[in-house]
Design brief:
By secondary structure, the protein is an alpha/beta fold. It folds into 3 domains: 224 residues, Growth Hormone, Chain: A, CATH 1.20.1250; 245 residues, MFS general substrate transporter like domains (Growth Hormone, Chain: A), CATH 1.20.1250.20; 284 residues, Rossmann fold (3-Layer(aba) Sandwich), CATH 3.40.50.150. The N terminus is likely disordered.
Length: 879
Amino acid sequence: MSEEKQTSRSGDSGAGRFLPVLLLFFVGSGCAALIYEIVWFQLLQLVIGSSAVSLGVLLGTFMGGMCLGSVVLPRIVSANRHPLRVYAGLELAIGVLGILVLLLVPQVARLYVAGAGHGFTGILLRGVVCAGCLLPPTILMGATLPAMARWVEATPHGISWLGFFYGGNIAGAVFGCLLAGFYLLRVHDMATATYVAAAINGAVALGALAFAALARYERDQSFASRSSRREEAHSLKSEIRNPKSEVDQSLLTSAATSTPDSSETGSAADTAASWPVYVAIALSGFCALGAEVIWTRLLSLLLGGTVYTFSIILAVFLVGLGIGSSVGSILARETVRARLAVGGCQLLLAAATAWTAYMLANSLPNWPIKPALSTNPWIGFQLDLARCFWAVLPPTLLWGASFPLALAAVASRGRDPGRLVGGVYAANTVGAILGAIGASVGLIPWIGTQHSQQVLMGISVVAAVLVLTPLLWARRNNASEAEGPAHSALRTPHSAPGQTVPTMFGRISGSLALLFAGVLAAWLIWHVPKVPWGLVAYGRNLAIQDEVSKPLYLGEGMNSSVAVTESSGQVRNFHVSGKIEASTEPQDMRLQRMLGHIPALFHPQPKSVLIVGCGAGVTAGSFIVHPGIEKIVICEIEPLIPKVVAQYFGKENYNVVKDPRVKIVYDDARHYVLTTAEKFDIITSDPIHPWVKGAATLYTKEYFELCKRHLNPGGLVTQWVPLYESRMDVVKSEIATFFEVFPHGTIWSNDLGGEGYDVVLLGQSDPIKINVDELDRRLEHHEAVSQSLGEVGFKSTVSLLATYGGQGPDLKPWLKDAEINQDRNLRLQYLAGLGLNASEGWSIFEQMIVHRKFPENLFIFSASQREALRAALEGKDSQ
């Protein structure tokens, strides 16, 4: 090739010197994109809920927009336009739309609530909301890589830079993920995070415009015209057919990777030969996102499902993709056997997936780690990061390498790089969408995480076979056969770009090697280990469990993994998210009954009840024995819990799920309260711990205001607040937020021997008056209620009222520095995530009751009742 032709490559021309700078632009773009993604997911979950269906719709819309952008832009934006200016325009528009999403979602929420429902129409409406909010900015995000692709040439050398751009984008995404999860949202709020992302978009856009003024762009810089390609190809063939011509290997390689009659979209032969690569990269995307869903489920059990854990997992996944993409870009630059490399990556992915499955099931759960040894969360994060890297890095490296190698495998000189990148990116993204939704909504609840991983390994093998088989059995055309074996390296119409036609020996040996790899993969698939029941039951504390329990049930549902166990003392435990959420232990039974009986007794005539979170069903069952109750609605996000788990606690919950007064709604509880038109006499919430990602939405000021609006006159709300596995600032935030909405609210303690365990918050619109004589009469006439309370230690009215722990006005001095948990910041999940190893329950309870005053204004009682209650409270204080 002439010197003039060599300098036409972007990587070698004057324009090529700007490529490292463009790489930095993609780092900034990726950083902003991940900040937006985290903010938008958090923002829209408040509207459409956080169930698996809602998250699937949300993720599908987000990635679908990026797919559309990658395909559409090269077809509507002329290749003659300066790529840097197009890129700058996209970045500016993303920043503007990012801010608009932040501002418009509250308005969209109002419209959504007016027509929201359940079933297929509800899912459809959630999709419409997500599409309206996310498609415009995500389409532009997906268009950035194809736009910049036109700066390079569609050759292995140029394509390698596209791989580096992709890797730089991922590197920025890693930083954005950590910046948002560990700083912007922990310290500030969603608005601040959005403005930071928009500022990054603006800086990248201004930088791109500045360099556009310095770098002259002509279409020929990016890819040669059709006529010049045809002339070059005919010239090369002429030289090759001349026996006296000295043809070096680089010329043969160039001929093998060019197509004389290709158009900007490639020749028909190229297209026909490339479809296995497009299918393979789509299957690779399916496996990557499917595995991410599966492994996030398992790692969140192992590490504790905090918001920080999810940020760490996502960051490690992205780091692996970024490193793999960089390595794949180097390989694509140096070799013409890109298809062989793509197929090899898919085969290796079967083994790498087996590695991760083994690590998550048989290795990491048995590491001798006691989380509570350090209450410093940042030390714990280091350990979590190391464990994630150890388990997840190998397969992510291979998925990352597959993308640039796939680009190189379908590239040929003269193709529009924008369309080339858009096509491969779209195929990968479509696969990723199907993988993410399919794994969460389909595979895991249908066949479990073990078999889901086996399916993904099998798909990787199929992808490898699709790519490698054509390489083994490619045919020569007549001309090349007549010319002899010396010219068999030239690509034929039946072989892929960069593919050499193998000899018969090569075909046989290659087939045997592929067969051996398939057999090995089948062996690995067969031996994927089961998820140990102890991991689902005890999660991060599995290695330090001393008591031997017997598993009664293990289930992996659409939204969470659950287990039921029985200890040697005949105590049954309900486990979710790797921790005990309910049990028949005396202290747990006491708390669950308090959540039901306190509002049912304090309300003069309760008829309708909403239960947020089914759990073991004991709280919901507490209302069964109250004769005036006519309707009980249980809202539960995980279908396995009411359908299966509650059955194991039938005696304790009075078989509540079979009672004709009970209606079960399978949805995110906040979404149900937001969208229902019903009102209730009692709303009681027994959610999961606030450090679990997503649970903080059931502790916000806006959520409590929703509950308040859905109360009938005189209605009551109860809310569980744990003191264990928590810190002072966390508990203060929970209580202060509740009292912001219910200023006359009260606290009722479930303490053990004077030490704090957990509390029940009771709220109402107006100051409540509790008539002790009326309580005595109701307990006397309703033997079932009296018996239910007696089973958990409340033998009299006074013993129940002695759990009084304070009320809003008295606790104001203690709560003056508390942070209010609001929708715009979800501060609680970040505070609670830092304190799950804390053991401050006793200290928190002690400081809280210091501010407790005898509640003269709360009760209507006789002098004897007053003295009995005073004695009971003072007796507890002296313990």
